[in-house]
Amino acid sequence: MRYVNGMRGSAMAVVVASVALAVAGCQPGESGADTADGGPTASGSVSPAASSTPSSSLTTPTASAPAPSAPAAGGPASTCTASSLKATARQATVRPDGTGTGAAVVEFTNVSAHTCSLNGHPTVAGAANGSPELNVPLTVKQTGTVTSVKVAPGGKAWVKLTFVQVQGEGDGYCESGSAPVLYPTMVVGLPGSGAHQVGLDDGQFAECDDTVTVTPVSTVKPA
Questions:
Q1: Which of 8, 52, 71, 182 is the most buried (most CB within 10 A)?
Q2: Are 160 and 188 in contact (CB under 8 A)?
Q3: Beta bridge pairs of residue 103
Q4: Per residue in 79-102, pLDDT tens?
Q5: Which among 103, 101, 104, 100 has a CA at the least distance from the CA of 169?
Q6: How far apart are CA 222 and CA 93, in angstroms?
Q7: Cβ contact 218:176 at 8 Å
Q8: How far apart are CA 106 and CA 124, in angstroms?
Q9: What is the pLDDT of residues 143-165, one digit of tens each?
Q10: C-beta separation of 84 from 133 below 8 A
């Protein structure tokens, strides 16, 4: 009887051991069913390593090309054209002693819509009314330093003409012994800016020796 019970105990021990082994064989990670690289698990689900995908590379936006810059303010202005200027003349306040014109101030007004520049000494010729082509070029003596000046729309620039003065009363006389000359108008030219015929606002140009001293064009009004 004891033997029989001993066999039963042995058989029961074998059964228990078999069940334990079967249970142990079902535990994750104990067999090749699980893989370290994210393969299927014992439950049939996919591990996070298997479902993840490489993130796409971030593309750095390409900077757009800068817009061309506008021309800098205060840059060089184009030379004034003849048509952009209106010229007038008046007898100067400061002039040599005598009875002739003595000196005249010629004013140039920019009548265009754009700023332009003037530069240099003028040329001068005596002329009749309405006949600038029938003029007598005067000998020009230059004085002063030349600078380029900008004239805004509506702005003004000037030159001063100083003649060899007529002396005496009546028709007068020239100290050189030559005869005085009377010109109804003068043709005043500016480098690159045309020739302009002007008459005095209060008379005619009386001068000697067909010689004139001129200042360069300036935005400072002479006396």
A1: 182
A2: no
A3: 162
A4: 999 999 999 999 999 999 999 999
A5: 100
A6: 9
A7: no
A8: 11
A9: 999 999 999 999 999 999 999 99
A10: no
